UniProtKB/TrEMBL annotation:
GO biological process, one term: cAMP catabolic process
CDD domains for the chain: class_II_PDE_MBL-fold
InterPro entries documented for this protein: Metallo-B-lactamas (IPR001279), Pdiesterase2 (IPR000396), RibonucZ/Hydroxyglut_hydro (IPR036866)
Protein name: Cyclic-AMP phosphodiesterase
Amino acid sequence: MKVRVLGCSGAIARGSRTTSFLIDTDILVDAGTGVGDLTVGEMLRIDHVFITHAHLDHITALPLMLDAMGARRRQPVMVHALPQTIEAMRAHIFNNLIWPDFSRIPSEAAPFMRFAPIETGEVVEIGGRRIEALPAQHTVPAVGYAVSADPAVRKDGQAATWVFSGDTGPNPAFWQRVNQLDDVRMLVIETAFSRRESKLAEISQHLAPDTLAQELAQIAPGKDFPIYITHTKPTETVQILVELGGLQRDSTQKSTPPGAKDQGGRLYELHGLQAGQEFDL
């Protein structure tokens, strides 16, 4: 299972793309501005899109991508999301005012996309991969996702799980489920604001370094996996990484993260995520 980071920024700027991850070649998790770096051929291979929530930085490329692919697809793109998220996209994006309703174009029988409602805890199986909606706490209904490769289709016969928090504030239910998952190979978790913006993080239900440390303290003993920080604001990224322990760079420019400690003194392997990175899990 391959994970390609199309975008992982909390806002746009030159070189910054908002949240989107490509799983293998056919599944998108969120559809932020990073989708715009795909070729039309790459977009045509996407059959499923899993949306965490309805905020613009996570859905902005979805209507544009559907328009770019148009009638060249034989089957509709399946857009998986909470019912409340689907309702918001129908009302405010695909409403034939802001953008055409591609769930009914060119016809209801053969549209460019179909909405597929999911609920927290639900699992969707696609081509030997399991996508589970995880709990999230945000200002709108939201989920994270765990994407697992079926051990039966892996050469080593082992499971491999990629976990994404989505946008979330403090979230005990998320950790309860993560601690139950087998063979987590990578955790991607948001930290949108630095300490100086911690009040704004609280109001907007995002994480800042201190609340991230409190969240990481809920990882069960014996669970050990690399943690990648996403959704940093471009103006805050450097400060956030410094506050988390930073990223040390040697003369070859390879990242060697010293990690960050939670309030109990436990050391975690933290990395700053960057658009363009690819991971083979």
